[in-house]
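Quick look at the format.
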Amino acid sequence: MPTSTAGRTLHPMRRRRASTLEELRLTIDCLPLRTRIAMLEGVRTNEIIVGAYVDRHGGVCPMLAAHRNGGRTSFISFAKAWDRFAGAKRARRATERELRVLIAHLEESIAAEEGIDLAGAISDHERLTAARPRPRAGDPDRSTELQGRPGWAWLRPFRRLDEYERALAGLDLAVPRTDELELGHDAVAGSPQ
């Protein structure tokens, strides 16, 4: 048996089984809920096989079992994951272990999805947001709310003409106009002549 550098025995089959088991689990979670429920019922009531869709003895794959129980979904990746998990080289009856794993994953996946109460979560969210009203972004006039805060609207576009005129008047007082600067410069430049 091969050993690793740490002296432990390597088990290549365990690694392959773990990856195929994870692939099967993910594929089951991707199935629609109604298909998972139908597959669970079908697996419990039919002879399940691996490596083929049906066999000559009446065995069916889990997807056909789901189809017969109302879960009409075509999902080829599940069939491939199921056969890889089972290591199917030819059509054969599924082992008890394979069936237990499949049933356990189906039950777990169904329970996880059914445990989510989306309607309840939505109503809780609506109740909480209605309980604490906040001003909406982009309200047209927040001057009463923010008038005590200096500089709150220094980048705000003006929505009314009188606001714009007041801002210009304040600007005229704070900064000298450019034409006054030019006259002052010309007067200074022209005086020595």
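Next, a different chain entirely:
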Amino acid sequence: MKIPSPDPSPAVVRERLVEGLRVIEAVANDGGLHATLIAAAEATAEALLAGHKLMVAGNGGSAADAQHLAAEFVNRLTGDRPALRAVALTTDTSILTSVCNDSGFEHVFARQIEGLGVPEDVFLGISTSGTSPNVLRALELSRAMGIVTIGLTGKTGGKMPPLCDYCLRMPSEVTMYVQQAHLALEHIFCLLVERRYFAAKASAAAAARG
């Protein structure tokens, strides 16, 4: 294995930051992507208002994103408010290891959806390549169970687009830049769901007061 020479040049830092900014700028200018994000957030808010939940999963850095997003739903993003129903399917080590040991890693998320999911829940699968077998199986099962499916992925989307009601593809095939864009949209997704959910709650409360 050839170990690359260290290059502490500030030019490397700037180059990587600039390239990441180019991807974010492309996302910022993609109206179709924005419309899909808004629609996905509205569908998620409607599911939560009906008593359903959001489930999130991914691998590696995307597993960290899944946990990050679930934490923002359950705790908060921008201000104090009641908790929102969300769970990351990447955190229970006994479930993860038993499913991997008994059935294989490709089943690790689908098995949890089978046990925890109900029709009209929402599943958000994160895969930078769009080809992660365990995310694809989870999307397939969600579709079969009547669960709303959202995908966060890279430029081509891999095999995810046909399995997603809402597929958000980042304009890059470089994992680090895709993940940076994912995190930006995950924050905005949570913000949009919060606003839609609590606006509807406030309207219902006002109507009840007459």
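The chain has seven helices and five strands.

See the schema section for token definitions.
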